[in-house]
Structure formats: C-alpha cells, structure tokens
Amino acid sequence: MSDERPTRARDLGIVIGTHPTGPANAITDVPGVLVGQVTVQEPERDVHTGVTVVVPHADIWSEPVFAGAHRLNGSGEMTGLEWVRESGELTTAIGLTNTHSVGVVRDALVREQVRARGEGTYWSLPVVAETYDGLLSDINGHHVTAEHVDEALAAAAPGPVAEGNVGGGTGMICHEFKGGIGTASRTTSAGDGSWTVGVLVQSNYGRRERLRVNGVPVGEVVGPDVVPVPEIPAGYEPGSGSIVVVIATDAPLLPHQCARLAQRASLAIGRMGGTGEQYSGDLMIAFSTGNRGLPPYSWDEDPGVAHPDLPVRMVVPQLMTRLFDLVVEATEEAILNALVAAQTLTGRGGLTVHALDHCLLQQAMNPREGE
C-alpha cells in the first residue's frame, strides 16, 4: 500500500475497542467544541514547534463549563488546575504548546478573554499545558508568540482535526517514534439521544519496547534494529517527555464526574505502554458541555442576588462505567492516530526521529499477512 500521509489508524484497518465513533472521529464531534492549530517551522533555525487550542464552546470566555483533572505523573505543567480543582469549572480555552512557551500562550489567552468580555473587574486563570520538544526544536528560542495563539484561536473550527506534526505536537516524540497531535471520539446511546466523548492528545512520551496496540507488542516487533530510535543525549532518560490528554463530552457531568473521566485516560496510556515514567508529565483534563448557563466570573455584578441557585443535571452513577469505556478507547485511538499521522523529522542538531512505518505496523498487527 502507499504510505501517503496523513493517514489514520482506521485507514490501516486497525480498530480500537467496540463503541462507534462520531462523524469525524475527533474531539470536535462533541457539539460546540472547536480546535485551532498553528505550526511554527523554520528548519534552517531548528524550529519545529507550535500551538494547539481547544475551545469548549464559542462563549467559553464568559460562560464556564464543569471540569476536572487528573495527574498520572507530575513532571509537567498545566496552568490553572488549582482553580479547576477548587471550583470545578473551566473558564477559558485550553492551550497546548512546548514547555518553554507556556507563559506566552497563557498571557495571550488572558488577552483574548479581555477582548471577548471587554475591560472589567474580573480575572483569568487560563489552562495551558506543555510537553517538551527541545530534542527536535530550539526550545529556548521562544519561537511561539502571542500572534500564533491569536491565529490558532481565529482558526478554531469544528470537523476534522489535523494530526501528527502539527500545532503543539510538531516537535514531539512518542514511544521513540515521531509523535504529536492525535484525536478520536466515541458515542453511546442515552435515553432518547446519545452522548459523545472526544479526546485530543499531545503525545510525547514512552519507550519503544513497551509500545502496545490492541495488546500486540508493536514496539518489540518494530524495534531499534528495524526502525532506529533517536540518538538522545546522554543523561536523557528514555521515556521522558510527557502526554497531555484533553477530554470533552456533552454528557451532563458534575465536576467530580469529570475528574473521574480524566482519571480513566491514564488507563489508556498504560494500555499503550506508558508507565508514567519519572520524567514524563502525564496530565489529563476533562470538561462537560452538558450543563450550560453557568454564570461568568466578575466583581462587576452579583448574579447570586437575583439567581441564588442554578439547576444542573448529572449522569446517573450507574452509567459512568460506559463513559469510562468510551474515554479509554478514544484515548488509545488518539495516541495511535498521532503515531500513524506523524512524519519523520530531522530537527535540532541533526537529530532524526522516524515515523512509525505503516506497512511495518500492519505486519506487526497481522503477522500472518506479512509471511
């Protein structure tokens, strides 16, 4: 078969789990969720980086959503999590970028909230997460700018999402293959309708020998003798890097249920072969758009005077297991989609990270067909 890219796991005949996907098999299958990305590449200056934004809904700047978070391993950063944990609410779009560009992306999201709401006596605690692209990119050059964030927000759209070497995932490495951005979704019936769970990952974690796909030891079959692992600097522990998982759903979850959903994404990382390595920042955030109309944060007015309470809905506990299944399947497939879409990249100092070859992956999954 041809190895044209971008390609997704299902294009190669690899299906994760049993639940149906949404129309785009992406986080944007959750109604209202938008994704925007800007890729910043200047090979002559060893620049391979970017920014990805996930917008829960178009008016997120003045209407929060319920959210929760989980940490598998904390060698990483996701700003704004203390307020998410304290309040149970997400008040901004979510930004993904490289480790040393968190500040500029955070500041740009603050400015966007000011543009959206106007000047006022309110505050902003944006959620911005990172993974380290310093092996392939000039991370200390601070090449991501506020203008790039503005462009990503302006480009945020529903529908299919670009994967692999794009946006915040441009310079990332996954299981010692080229990694990056990946996404997937799952749906389930609910009463007279349905719920969708969508996942987007920025995948930059893992050791080659531990990579599993549907339980198949792909990383052992496609080992360093078949596809070289990157020649990492001395002292850089294999498996270091990080993964960020963003989970969206239109199921009406309360904050503690969002946190439970985020926690289950770590099971998918484990199924793919991640162990939460010492120097891997494995962070997850989940939000629900199923309760709308939450009041904005502001000291200009007191919504509690006229409306002291607010009716909300929640998924009955007996159905949480089904949502757990959806998030595990979607996270696994999102990681695999990142690997399948990614392209070989030679970056900083001539370091080359090879893509996971499609034919080798198919042969590993179906060894009899390769005989």
Topology (SSEs and partners):
Layout: E1 34-42, E2 47-55, E3 65-74, H1 81-87, E4 89-90, E5 94-98, H2 102-117, E6 127-131, H3 146-155, E7 173-174, E8 177-178, E9 180-190, E10 193-206, H4 218-221, E11 239-249, H5 255-272, E12 281-288, H6 303-306, H7 320-341, E13 345-346, E14 352-353, H8 358-365
Parallel strand pairs: 5-6, 11-12
Antiparallel strand pairs: 1-2, 2-5, 3-4, 3-12, 7-8, 9-10, 10-11, 13-14
Helix pairs in contact: 2-3, 5-7
Task: Tell me what you see in this structure.
This protein has 371 residues and is an alpha+beta fold. The protein has one domain: L-amino peptidase D-ALA esterase/amidase (4-Layer Sandwich). Helix content is 24%, strand content 25%. Strands 4-3-12-11-10-9 form a six-stranded mixed beta sheet. The mean pLDDT is 94.
